[in-house]
Amino acid sequence: MPGNKLNQKSASKHAQQLLFSEALQHKRLASITTNPQTSSPPTESTTMAEKSHSTTMDRILQEITTVSRRIEGMDASITSLTLETKSMRAEIAGFQSRVTGLEQHMGLVEAQTTMSRDRDQDLLYLRSKLTDMEDRSRRDNIRLHGIPENEEGVDMQSFLRSILPKLTSLDFDPPIEFQRVHRVGPKRSGNSSRPRPIIACLLRHNQTRQILQAARKQGPFQLDQHDIRITADDSKETNDRRKAFLALRPRLRQLEIKYGLFDPARMWVTKNGVSKDFYNPEELQLFLDSFQPQSMDSTSTSGSHDNGGDNEGNLPP
């Protein structure tokens, strides 16, 4: 921009010099024409020529003045444009600085988001491990629901040791032994019709499995006209997953998909000869959504296969 400004100034000065040179030349001609020593006395034609020259010079001077004013206006405009250009450059530099700052901030946000996502995955993994450890620590436990309060008398272990073979129709050899037995929670006040469940931790795991299998096949049991249900003592997270799997059974039957629910909370399904295991109800839901739903009128249960573990009796009430 400064180079353009200098070129325009030099061009304007050159134009002024040319105009002044032309004006001086006309003035010399006029002086030669009117000089009494070198010419004859002025005539009418000479006077007209002088007037013509004078008019031409006045017009040239006016044009020179106009051009000079225009050049001055152009100089002012160039100066203004130069200032505006400097201001725009400063604003652009400020914008670039802001963009750089935003890019750095976005990089930090992305890094924090990645760290947060990794932390969430780690928490989910740790939670699943804790749930698995809790379930393993409870795998020798059974829960008995529906036994009236105080029915066990003063020795609950002896009471269970006598009724469990009768309820399950199993012969235990060696006899059942318990590590600990107790009711869950504080005693309910008043004449509550819902007794507290009993948790029993058996000494031998194979006897625990026998009782739970019999409970799935035969339960609920009858004891003095009371319905007795025996379930596994799984963690709350595992029970919630089992209930979510059981809620999908109508959809599985509608799609004629064979299925089975296994301990602690694993759904096995087979469709068109292909079998899959699901440990998460949400993943099973996505799998079912991939099939075109059939009409409710054509719903059939012939394709379902309820495994021994698929029984609501295995869940706490």
UniProtKB/TrEMBL annotation:
Residues 139-233 form the L1 transposable element RRM domain. Residues 32-56, 291-317 are annotated as: Disordered. Residues 291-305 have a biased composition (Polar residues). Gene3D superfamilies: L1 transposable element, RRM domain. Residues 33-47 have a biased composition (Low complexity). This is L1 transposable element RRM domain-containing protein. It comes from Pleurodeles waltl. The lineage of its organism: Eukaryota, Metazoa, Chordata, Craniata, Vertebrata.
